[in-house]
Amino acid sequence: MQGWLSILIMIALGAGFALISVLLSGVLGPSKPSAEKSAPYECGMPPVGDARERQSVKFYLVAMIFLLFDIEVAFLYPWAMALRGLGWNGFAQVVLFMALLLAGYVYVWRKGALDWGNEKTERARKLRT
Amino acid sequence: MTPGALNAIVPMACVTAAGIAAMVAESFREPGEHMPIAGLGLVGLIGAAISAVLLWNHNTSSFGLVSADNFGLFVTLILVCVGVLTLAISGPTIERERLPAGEHYALTLFALAGMMLMATATDLLVIFLALEVLSLAVYVLTGLRRDSPVASEAAFKYFLLGAFSSAFFLYGIAFTYGVTGSTHLDRIGSVIAAGAAQETLMQRLALGLLLVGFAFKVSAVPFHMWTPDAYEGAPSSVTGFMSTGVKAAAFAAFVRVFLSAFEPMRADWGAVLWVVAAATMILGTVVGVVQPNIKRMLAYSSIAHGGYLLVALLSGNDLGKGAVLFYLLTYAVTNLGAFGVIGLLESAGTQPSAISHQPFIPATGHQPPNDQVRDYAGLWHTHPMLAGLMTVFLLSLSGFPPMAGFIAKWYVFTAAMKAGYSGLAIIGVLTSVVSVFFYLRVVVMMYMTEGERPAAFPAVPRMAGLALVVSAIVIFYLGILPARVLDWAAQSIGTIF
Amino acid sequence: MVALNHYLVLSAILFAIGTAGVFVRRNLITILLSIEIMLNAVNLTFVAFGRALGSADGQIIVFFVMTVAAAEAAVGLAIVITLFRHKESLNPDSFTLLKW
Q1: A82 occurs within a structural domain
Q2: Is B25 a member of any domain?
Q3: How far is residue B421 CA from its own chain's centroid?
Q4: Could you tell me if B98 lies within 8 Å of chain A, comparing CB atoms?
Q5: How many whole angstroms separate alpha carbon B38 and alpha carbon B237?
Q6: Interface mutation vs chain B, best among C25, C27, C68, C99, most B CBs within 10 Å
Q7: The domain containing residue B191 runs over which residues?
Q8: Which of B149, B209, C1, C31, by CA, is between 20 and 30 Å from C91?
Q9: How close A33 comes to chain C (CA, Å)?
């Protein structure tokens, strides 16, 4: 049972952090509610409505891009844990890894996949053809 | 890390760098601006070729995961040929289909880097990663014509079956890891060889799942269903690329895994592969005979050629291993040539400017893509040069002397006879004879039939024309004076087995 | 005590569920999810073997498989979207342009 104590502490810390953040922001922050702000999801689609409503395809695009750039963290954590052991050699490899991702990011950005408005998407459409 | 530790990955690093450069260049290209992106790719491929030649006979290895032995380098050089030819012949297809040029080249280069990695990797996990790198790029290339329902459907079928088979392949790797405690081919080989007397069920399971994964990638029967659909739906230059490049990379890894690590279990996989090879040759040939669409016909022909390669692999003697390499080389040059001609003729009759081309709306103004066998009627009268080249490619595919295809098949069947697989050799010869029929069908169309279409063939771009002529010359060279290349192939198999 | 075999059986069941899903389900997105289930079944196998063998290799491999799965999902979704735009349907039976 000894091993579970640390997990209990972890749970307490996690719950405590969430509670304190919510309480503090409630106490300290200014409160000016509006209909838009009190919706469950402040950004994105309306939460109540027909389930078959069509969503903009941009959601899929952002989801795909998020998926790809999100997974990079899976490699950064192990590297961070072994930072000292890997030394500059490991650092150089991670920098190379990030540089490759950056190239992908530049591509995504320049292609207008991150723009939500209309003005840049026009440009992207022209680029595509 | 010692300075030479990265040497073995220099060829694929060159190609990857070129691919990233192409991607970034494309993103900074203004609409309508022309950029020599294909040139970037060419530079990267030449770099890969030079480094591969410099690494020849050095047997270097990086991280213990990638080994630049002569076998891998030979396949790397085949892949460089595939890449250069693809870059040269894809121009007309890109123009006509209005494909995004930068993406096309970048994805081609990424796929090539994955193929090179697959051919040189000596660890099952790295082979899997390389397989995925090349597959993902090729899935996207297949669906690059986003305005075409056929292309999207082909891309999805290819993606679905490819991802499905990757899962099987990965499951096989997992069991191999469980049985042997390693994913490294050397370790796997020694562990299996040590315990060859009592084989466990799990070991057989691992072998079977890996076999399924490879069979999908080399489109062997009964896992060939995706091939004709993907080949028909993809743009012609991409079809040529994936039929040759993917095959070369997959067979390189197939040979490496089965003839080194799993060689002690030959008793298990030999019989299965015998049946698969026979079925692949027969089905590819028989179904190919009745195809009205030339790309589908060549897809079945590619399945049949996969069958011949399986025979060479199964033979497993020195002759057979050398034959795999030689066959891959001749097949790459020949098939890319054929698809180059198809790509040029597809361009005929379609005006590239008049079509409304909004994204995602099927362009109804498209003329039929000119890819039925009957569209080749009378080509000899309208474009004798292309008809002549196409004849060379098709005859070489059918294994007609003195073309390269003849020597390649000759070596495969000799190897099979020597290894005691005379049954397979007989099936191979018979299917080759039958296959002559459907290749000749196109040739007869070109020479003996009058075309109903007026002569509207556009001028052949210089690069594409040059590439096709060089391919034809190489085919004759390999067919008449094959000794030197066969020597190289024999040298390169000596380094790994 | 949970032995290695339990994990292997569980992952085999998951893999079978994924495989069946690919064949049985009639929605392209669900089919993609089924393939993800297959890959995760393999991940479980890797972790179980890695633990049984007493090496961290199994878990390291899972990182790579997760990355591949993410890339595969992204490409798959993109292809499904282009497909949907042509036919306004996600039923695989409605895509029949290519046969034979």
Answers
A1: yes
A2: yes
A3: 25
A4: yes
A5: 14
A6: C68
A7: 7-496
A8: B209
A9: 38
Q: Which two tokens stand for residue B1?
A: 């890390």
pLDDT over 90, % of chain B: 50
What's the confidence (pLDDT) of residue C16? 96
CA distances, B59 to each of A99, B54, B79 (Å):
30, 11, 19
Instruction: State the smallest CA–CA distance between residue B167 and chain C in angstroms.
Output: 6
A78: nearest CA in chain C? C60
Give me the residue from A67, A74, A75 closest to C73, CB to CB: A67
Asked if residue A79 is part of any domain, the answer here is yes
- Least CB-CB distance to B150: which of C8, C31, C98? C98
In angstroms, the CA B311 to CA B324 distance is 9
Q: How far is B143 from chain C, CA to nearest CA, in Å? A: 7
The total number of structural domains in chain B stands at 1
ipTM value of the model? 0.94
Q: B101-120 and B70-97 are packed helices; what angle lies between their axes, rounded to 10 degrees? A: 160
Q: Which of B89, B105, B133 is nearest to B41 (CA)?
A: B105
- pLDDT tens per residue across span C7-48: 999 999 999 999 999 988 888 889 999 999 999 999 999 999
Q: Is the peptide bond preceding residue B454 cis, with omega within 30 degrees of 0?
A: no
Residue A46 lies in a domain: no
Q: Is the peptide bond before C92 cis (omega within 30 degrees of 0)?
A: no
In this structure, are strands B60-62 and B66-68 parallel, antiparallel, or unpaired?
antiparallel
- Across the interface, do A128 and B100 touch by the CB < 8 Å criterion? yes
With H, G, I as helix, E, B as strand and everything else as coil, classify residue B220: coil
Q: Which domain holds residue A105?
A: 55-128
Distance from CA of B188 to the nearest CA of C (A): 15
pLDDT tens digits for range B42-61: 999 999 999 999 988 888 88
- A64–C74 CB contact, under 8 Å: yes
Q: Which residue has the tokens 């899962």?
A: B167
Q: Is the dihedral of CA B112, B115, B120, B121 positive or negative?
A: positive
Cα B223 from Cα B215, distance rounded (Å)? 6
Is residue B129 in some structural domain? yes
Name residues of chain A where pLDDT drops below 70: 1-2, 36, 40-56, 117-129
Please report whether residue A2 resides in a domain: no
Distance CA B396, CA B408 (A): 10
Any idea what the CATH number is for the domain that residue A59 is in? 1.20.58.1610
Confirm whether B1 is domain-assigned: no
- Write out the residues of chain B at the interface with chain C, using a CB-CB cutoff of 8 A: 125, 128-129, 132, 136, 139-140, 143, 146, 149-150, 152-157, 159-160, 163-164, 166-167, 170-171, 174-175, 177-178, 181-183, 228-229, 232-233, 287, 291, 296, 360, 362
Contact residues, chain B, for A93 at CB < 8 Å: none
Distance CA(B410)–CA(B403), nearest Å, equals 11
Find the DSSP H helices in B242-383.
247-256, 266-289, 294-315, 318-347, 379-382
Give the integer Cα–Cα distance in Å for B288 and B15: 35
Query: Which residue is associated with the tokens 């597809």?
Result: B346
Distances (CA, A) of B477 to B74, B240, B404, B483, B493: 18, 21, 7, 10, 22
Question: Each residue of B393-411: pLDDT tens digit?
Answer: 999 999 888 889 999 999 9
- What total of structural domains would you count in chain A? 1
Q: State the average pLDDT for chain B.
A: 86
